[in-house]
Each structure stands twice: as C-alpha cells, then as structure tokens.
Amino acid sequence: MHRSNHPYAELVEQAHIGYLRHKAGFVSPKHSGSCLRILVVDDHGIVREGLAALLESDDGIRVVGFAATGEEAILAAQRLSPDVIIMDLVLPDLNGIEATKRILRYLPDTHILALSACHTPDHVGRALRAGAIGYVLKSAVGAELLSAVKAVSAGNQYLSAAVSAAGGAPAARVPVPDSPFETLSSRENEVLRYIVAGSTSAEIAQFLSLSRKTVDTYRSRIMVKLGVPNRSALIHLALKYDLPVV
C-alpha cells in the first residue's frame, strides 16, 4: 500500500483502522489500574481519533478523555487528573502554551507532551518554559509518540530528533528572551490585556473604573513604550509573546 508523506498520514491511517475495528465490533481488552491515563488535546477530530487508536494499541496506555480547545483542555484536566496530556499548541480560544501554564498551576504532577507541526527553537523554547516536558512533531511515526509518552510519564524530557537537530535543548538551556512587557506598569499591562481581548476604550474604562480619556492615554503610552504604530501591531506583539488575556 502506498504511504503518503503528509504529516497526518499515520494518524489518519490509525483513525481509519480504529473505525474499521469499531464497525467490526472490536472491543478493547480491559485495562488494568496501572495503565497510563492520557488526555488528548487537538482541534482536529480525525487527529484525536488517530492518536487514541495509536495510543491504545499499547496495553499499558488508556485514553481517558479528549479536548478540542484550550479551555476544554483545562476543564478536562481538572476533571480527569491524567498522568500525561498530549497538547496541540495551536488551539481555538486559548493556545496550547497558555493552557499548559494554567493546567500545571492546578496539576503540577501531570506531565505535558507538546505536539506541533513546527519545531523552530522559539516554538520549542516557549513550550518548555511553559512547563511541557516533551516536544513531538506531528510528522513523527507512531512508535516515537509511544516512546515519548512513556518517557515523559516517568519524568524524563523527550524531544523529537528533528527538534534537537534544529537547535532544541533541555529547558534549562533554552535562552529566555526579555519580554517587552516588562517595561509596562501593572496598570498598563492590565489595559493591554483588555485591548488584546478586543475590548474598546469605553469598555475598558467601565471595567477598570477609569475615564475613556485616561484609557486612551494608557493606550498611547503602551504603544510608545513597545514601539508599535497601531492596535494591530500591538496585538501581533502580544500574540508573539503569548501574553495572557483577560
């Protein structure tokens, strides 16, 4: 059978196999209590299904839940307390980086394995600094994903070979760039988060009990400090550095 080189090829194949097994009435053997409990987070249904089929081909692994958005991932993690979360980094409503940070505040013993199509040092560094203990590419073969899950479940860092070749490194050695937002006051940071969330000056004024003129002054001051010419550039900068929004 011809195998496609598309990044999702193996996941799609696994999903198809899983579907055929379901149609044939296949029932997975009962998992023991010692199984690794996995939460799968990805906004593509066929990828979630493919990952689940692949993971549960190992008798020592059980997929206990799914999430399609960052917010869903946080709620599912709190409800299920999984051993490992496979976290897509590009998600609707809340990206995987921010979801990782928030989950680890509540569940510090949960291990997070980042899953991404991108492996630049910047992307890898941000994932590791957020608390992910592993980073696997979506182009990886199934055997590598299983190895990565088992490695991170034991508290060991795992980086795809392509990540290491591109300059990825253990978190302690990833350079942390200075955040441009450190120059802002606490009030300016607060106003900025409302701007990035899409609030108008009038809405921000109401939320923070300020006059609209004061909010506009803060907005102008923020743009000057950050060296951006307009609101679009401001939002782009905030997204680049994964600034949390309100």
Summarize the structure.
The protein has 246 residues and is of the alpha/beta class.
Keywords:
Rossmann fold; Arc Repressor Mutant, subunit A; alpha/beta; 6-stranded parallel β-sheet; 2 domains
Characterise this structure:
The chain has 246 residues and is an alpha/beta fold. It folds into 2 domains: 9-173, Response regulator (Rossmann fold); 180-240, Orthogonal Bundle (Arc Repressor Mutant, subunit A), CATH 1.10.10.10. It is 48% helix and 12% strand. The chain has 11 helices and 6 strands. It has a 6-stranded parallel sheet, with helices on both faces. β3, α4 and β4 (111-116) form a beta-alpha-beta unit. α3 (70-80) runs parallel beside α4, α8 (186-196) crosses α10 and α9 (201-208) crosses α10 (212-226). The model is unreliable at 15-32 and 168-177 (pLDDT under 50).
Give the helix/strand layout:
Layout: H1 9-23, E1 36-41, H2 45-55, E2 61-67, H3 70-80, E3 84-88, H4 96-106, E4 111-116, H5 121-130, E5 134-137, H6 142-153, E6 158-159, H7 161-165, H8 186-196, H9 201-208, H10 212-226, H11 231-240
Parallel strand pairs: 1-2, 1-3, 3-4, 4-5, 5-6
Helix pairs in contact: 1-2, 3-4, 8-10, 9-10
Overall morphology:
elongated
Order of helices and strands: HEHEHEHEHEHEHHHHH
The fold-level CATH name of the largest domain is Rossmann fold
Low-confidence stretches: 15-32, 168-177
Count structural domains: 2
Average per-residue pLDDT, rounded, comes to 80
